[in-house]
Design brief:
This protein is an alpha/beta fold. The protein has two domains: 206 residues, NAD(P)-binding Rossmann-like Domain (Rossmann fold, 3-Layer(aba) Sandwich); 38 residues, no CATH class. Helix content is 44%, strand content 14%. Helix 1 crosses helix 9 and helix 4 runs parallel beside helix 6. The longest helix is centred in the middle third of the chain and has 27 residues. The relative contact order is 0.14.
């Protein structure tokens, strides 16, 4: 049970609350939504932001909408929108227990000299600056508890490098640096900061990555997928639920002395090319 010492009351509309709350960026679908559901199963009230209106509309039909989770349309790399979002959150809650920085894009595929400046900037802006905005505005809410957890979603590309995906790899390395630095800065407030590094995760995003790289390398998608699977000891992709399980562990009392760490969920990556 995460934050087992916290009581949970999902009816928070009419008053400020000191209840167990978790902010998750880009959480209307994919890994983010899987983590959000796992948090709710463990008693959390979840504040979901995303810029995908279609996905937000879909999850708004869920039976727990506005009971155990709340949604807001936010372009996470637009600082004005993020500040407006947090201003609205502060009218509803006094503090939070956890921040999960999930937002990220795959970025362009190609050799560095062939990449456009705009694609490079967009990848850095979404994958690094968004985390900075959310973290900067969440820290005061976490400090009020003198307890809490931040999880940054990085990647094994932030540990090994990733040919033809330099903007993505650079951004994920940066998140590991941010994680370790924040663990040092926030330890005295009993706020833990860790990173999760997924490997290849089954789903639409990985399909798009394979499709783009297949075109760049002029090899079949099937052969490329087999090559990706051959890069890890377990010879298979991980599932979104595997990432969520690690997030739940890092939020739990069992992980209360774990901070500044990089947790790989990848089937053991042996190589990245």
């Amino acid at each position: 049970m995460i934050f087992a010492n916290r009581s949970v009351n999902p009816d928070i509309d009419d008053k400020k609350s000191a209840l167990f709350g978790t902010i998750i960026s880009a959480a209307a679908d994919g890994i983010g939504w899987t983590i959000a559901k796992a948090c709710m199963e463990n008693g959390a009230i979840v504040y979901i932001s995303d810029k995908n209106n279609e996905a937000l509309d879909k999850i708004s039909q869920h039976e727990l909408f506005e009971k155990q989770f709340y949604i807001h349309n936010v372009n996470t790399n637009n600082v004005d929108e993020v500040e407006d979002y947090f201003s609205k959150l502060k009218n509803k809650i006094d503090n939070i227990d956890a921040l999960i920085n999930n937002v990220g894009i795959a970025g362009p595929t190609g050799k560095l000299e062939d990449l456009s400046i705009s694609d490079w900037k967009e990848t850095i802006d979404v994958n690094i600056n968004s985390h900075f905005y959310y973290t900067k505005l969440s820290i005061p809410l976490l400090k009020k508890n003198n307890d809490g957890s931040i999880i940054n979603l990085s990647s094994t590309a932030g540990l090994f490098g990733f040919p033809l995906r330099s903007p993505y790899s650079v951004s994920k390395w940066a998140l590991i640096g941010l994680t370790k630095t924040l663990a040092m800065e926030l330890g005295e407030y009993n706020i833990r900061v860790n990173a999760i590094c997924p490997g290849s995760v089954s789903g639409d995003r990985m399909k798009r990555v394979i499709e783009a790289k297949s075109k760049s390398l002029e090899i079949s998608e099937e052969n490329l997928k087999k090559n990706y699977e051959s890069m890890v000891s377990l010879k298979s992709f991980v599932e979104k639920e595997d990432i969520a399980n690690m997030a739940i562990f890092l939020l739990s009392n069992e992980a209360r002395k774990i901070t500044g760490q990089v947790m790989t969920v990848d089937g053991h990556t042996e190589r990245m090319n």
